Amino acid sequence: MSPVLMLKLGEMVLKGLNRARFEQRLLDTLRRRLEGLGAFSVRSLQSTVYVEPEESVPAERRETVVLRARDAALRVFGIAAVTVAEKTAPDLSPVLQAALSHCGLQTAQTFKVEARRADKSYPLTSPQICAELGARLLERLPHLTVDVHRPEVTVWVEIREGFAYVHTAPLPGAGGLPAGMSGKAVLLLSGGIDSPVAGWRMARRGLELVAVHFHSYPYTSRESLEKVRELACRLAAWHGPMKLYTVPLTAVQERMRAEGPEDYFTLLLRRSMARIASAVALRERCSALITGESLGQVASQTLEAMAVTGTASTLPVFRPLAGMDKEEIVTTARQIGTFEISIRPFEDCCTVFTPRHPRTRPRPGPVLDAEAKGTWIALEGEALTSAQRPEVAYAPHC
Ligand code: ATP
Ligand code: MG
After folding, report:
1. Which of 5, 98, 130, 286 is the right S-S partner for 86, CB 3.0 to 4.6 Å?
2. What is the 3-state secondary structure (H, E, C) of 29-78?
3. 298 C-alpha to center of ligand 2: Å?
4. pTM exceeds 0.85 for this model
C-alpha cells in the first residue's frame, strides 16, 4: 500500500486538438511547484495526473511528502479535483485494508462504496465490487450502516492499469486553465481587497499577469508599498513568479490638482492610470488591462464612470468583479489568502486628493476638455520612466 496523489484535469479536457498543449503546460507548472518537496514521478493518463513518490522515498516519509504535494497541487490552475488515494494490488483484501485504514470509517456512522473500473478485464463488475467490499466493511465495522443517498463517508475504489486506488471524496481544485495559456495582461493592483481578487480570477482563466501599482510617495507611505508587494507574493503562490512595476504618480497628481476640475479628479486620475498601464502593456507585450472595479461600488465605478475611464486605455479592459457583490469578493479574498493583507490600514494614491463631490454620472466632453487644457499627460511618460525596473514577486514553491 502506498499513498498517491490523483489530480483530475479541468475544462481543458474539452480542448480538442489543443488539449495536449494545455496538458503539457499544466504538467510543467506542476513539476516546478513540486521541486524541493520530494522526489516524484508525475504522469498523465486519461484525464488524471498521478503524482507518486519515487522508490527512493522511504516508506515512513511517503505520506508527508504526498500531503505536501497535495497542498501545492491545490494552487495549480487547470486542476478540477485533488485526491489522496491509497494504491494497492487490485484484490479485495488489500482494498479492504486500505479502506479500513484511510477512509475515516471508524468514527463515521454511515457509508457507501462507489467503484469504477477502467480496466474491463477485471473479474468483478463495478456493482459487484461495491457489494462485496460493502459487505466486508460491515462485517469488520458492525457499528456502520449503508446509506446510499447521504452517506457520511463514500469509499471510492478505482481499478486502473492493474492497480486499485482507494480514496474518499476529492477536494475541489483551483479550476480554470493552466497558467499563461490565454496570453498576458496588466493587472492594476492597488492595496485594496478587490484588485488582487480580480487578478486571481483572470490568472485562473490562464492569463499571465504583470502587476502595476501606482503610489504617491511621500503622500503615501513606504508601508503601503510593502503591503502591495506582499499582495503580489500571495498572488504569485497561485500564478507563479509575477512582475510588479511600482509607478510614482505624485507629479501627475499635483499637476492635475493645480490645473484640473476637482469634481472630475478621480476620473482623470483613473484615465492617467489606464494610459500608463497601457504603455506598460505595450512594453511587456500584454493584450489587456485588468481592474478590480465592481459596478456601482463607489462613485468612480458607475456605468458612466467606467465608460469614461475605459476609453483612456488602448486595450480591452477586463473587470472580472463587475458583477460580483462585495461579500462574494471578500469570500474569494479569504480563500486565496489576500484578505488579511488587504485590510491592513493604508493610503492609496486615489485617496490622497479625493474630491469632496465626485461626479457619479460624468460626461466624456468635460473630461476630454480638461485633458486638452491640462499639462499632466506630458508627465505620465516620466512617471513610467522613473518607475524602477519591475521587481519579481515570488512565493515559496511558486
Ligand atoms: P481595490 O480594493 O482593488 O483597491 P476599490 O474598490 O478600492 O478597489 P478603487 O480604489 O476605486 O476601487 O479602484 C478601482 C480599481 O482601480 C482597482 O481595483 C484597481 O484595479 C485600480 N487601482 C486603484 N488604485 C490603484 C493603484 N494605486 N495602483 C494600481 N491600480 C489601482
Ligand atoms: Mg482601491
Report:
1. 98
2. HHHHHHCCCCCEEEEEECCEEEEEECCCCCHHHHHHHHHHHHHHHCCCCC
3. 10
4. yes
